[in-house]
Every structure is written in structure tokens, then in C-alpha cells.
Amino acid sequence: MSTLEEWMTTVRAELALDGDGVADLRVVQKVILDLARDAAHGVARPAAPLTAYLVGVAVGQGAPLGETAARIAELALARPADQQPSGEGT
């Protein structure tokens, strides 16, 4: 088990997120890391964790993870070139 998988298992247990309501950690990990990458590259690096959090809130309210993450990643990557990060301060 990787360090990341161990950490996710620890956090999941600490937050009592075991059971039927939690998806496979490997699937969630890929979706969220891809979303974070797209937010960081399309918006700004600090947008990555905040975007992941907001998608998590939406999923907690019943939105499907895959569809929601894909829609938000598309938004991040579709930002006009003049709104893309320049590399400074991101």
C-alpha cells in the first residue's frame, strides 16, 4: 500500500467514512487528482484543493462524483487564455 493510500485509509477511518456510502478509494483518488490538476493548471494552484472541496460538498449532497468532477474540470480548462495562469504567483 502506498503512502497516499495509507493516508486516505487513515483519514477515511478518522472521519468514519467506511461502509456503503464511500466509493473505492482508487477510483476517487484518480478522479480527484485529475480534477485538482486541471484546476491548478486552468485556474491557479490554490484552486486545486478548494475546487476538490467544493466538488466533495456537491457529492455529499448527492451529485455523482465522476460527472461533477468532469464538468468542473471542463470549466477550469475552458477558461479564456487571458485568464489562464501565467506561472507567477500560482
Layout of secondary structure:
Elements: H1 3-14, H2 25-42, H3 47-60, H4 65-77
Helix pairs in contact: 2-3, 2-4, 3-4
Q: Any overview of this molecule?
A:
- Helix 2 (25-42) packs across helix 3 (47-60) and helix 3 runs antiparallel to helix 4.
- This protein has helices at residues 3-14, 25-42, 47-60, 65-77.
- It has 90 residues and is an all-alpha fold.
- The chain has 4 helices and no strands.
- The longest helix is centred in the middle third of the chain and has 18 residues, at 25-42.
Summarize the structure.
This protein is an all-alpha fold and 90 residues long.
Largest sheet: none
H/E element order = HHHH
Helix/strand structural class: mainly alpha
Tell how many strands the DSSP assignment holds.
Answer: 0
| Helical amount | 55-70%
Strand content is under 5%
User: What's the mean pLDDT score?
Assistant: 87
How many individual helices? 4
Radius of gyration: 14 Å
Shape summary: globular
Low-confidence stretches: none
Distance between the termini: 32 Å
Features:
90 residues; 4 helices; globular
